[in-house]
Design a protein that fits this description.
Distance between the termini: 68 Å
Protein name: F-box domain-containing protein
Strand content: 15-25%
Strand order of the largest sheet: 1-4-6-7-8-9-10
Organism: Roridomyces roridus
Shape: globular
Helix content: 25-40%
Structural class: alpha/beta
Mean pLDDT: 78
Low-confidence stretches: 79-84, 266-275
CATH class of the largest domain: Alpha Beta
Number of domains: 2
Oligomer: single chain
Order of helices and strands: HHHEHEHEHEEHEEEHEHE
Length: 275
């Protein structure tokens, strides 16, 4: 190895430059670089894991007898245009936990999850392997640390991936940006309390407005309300239909620089399916 590569700053620059090609080429190159020599191992692994689309790569770092990939049901692509997302996802391969995870089984996954700074959990662009909701349940019940991704700074996710009850696994003290696509069925669901949101600067939440069947009123976006009520400060906020308490809390934020509150009028909406 050339002595210059022993300079940490230079090794980091090389690995960051290799992040620029297409993902498949980038991942293969960085993975090979990580096993080339000790000097390049850490910066190459940091670059390889820095941005992840989904958590399947981390779950697959568990012992192989603890998880399995199940084939999806066959669906007709021509019929997908009128199917719900959850119906469409039944046709995709899904990742499942099939054994009891012990605390020691997390050693390898946690050695990589601490390197992740940007995480996308969404079926678009389509993930090859979609985690079953039981995967999040298994993580929450067996993880030996409070945070799954302690250095995560940016989270982009759809709530119908089963995330809302487990947001505390992702939102740590280094989180700066959260983007939530809130599914219609989750518009009235809570998020956990006690989240560490001190460093959060940008919160963008969006979703389709829905009417409450019995009252005909527009449903408030409870996930957004709950997150706002746990904030100390925020710089950039974009949310739909929040309640008065959330608005009053916003009025006290001295750091707020950009605000987008989206409200809908009931006459322009269709009632919820169960209304």
């Amino acid at each position: 190895m050339h002595p210059a590569l022993a300079t940490p700053e230079l090794a980091q620059l090389i690995c960051e430059k290799l992040q620029e090609p297409e993902p498949v080429c980038r991942e293969g190159t960085l993975a090979s670089l990580a096993v080339t020599c000790r000097a390049l191992r850490e910066p190459a692994l940091d670059a390889l894991w820095r941005t992840q689309r989904g958590i399947q790569n981390i779950i697959k770092c568990l012992p192989s007898h603890l998880w399995e990939l199940r084939e999806g049901l066959n669906t007709d692509p021509e019929l997908e245009w009128h199917m719900t997302l959850r119906e469409i996802k039944k046709g995709w391969p899904s990742l499942h936990i099939i054994g009891t995870i012990q605390p020691g089984d997390w050693t390898v996954p946690l050695s990589y999850s601490r390197r992740i700074k940007t995480l996308f959990i969404s079926p678009f662009p389509a993930q090859i392997q979609v985690p079953d909701v039981t995967v999040f349940e298994a993580i929450a019940s067996t993880l030996p640390t409070p945070l799954f991704f302690p250095k995560l700074r940016s989270l982009h996710c759809r709530t119908d991936e089963g995330l809302l009850p487990y947001m505390n696994l992702f939102l740590g003290t280094r989180m700066e940006f959260v983007h939530l696509d809130i599914a219609g069925d989750d518009f009235n669901d809570p998020v956990p309390s006690g989240l560490a949101l001190q460093s959060l600067k940008r919160l963008h939440a969006r979703g389709l407005f829905r009417l409450d069947g019995p009252t005909g009123s527009v449903l408030l976006c409870r996930p957004a309300c709950d997150l706002i009520k746990q904030l100390d400060q925020i710089e950039d906020l974009s949310v739909p239909n929040v309640d008065r308490e959330a608005l009053e809390r916003l009025a006290r934020f001295t750091s707020l620089k950009a605000l987008d509150l989206e409200y809908a009028r009931p006459e322009f909406l269709e009632p919820a399916a169960d209304g």
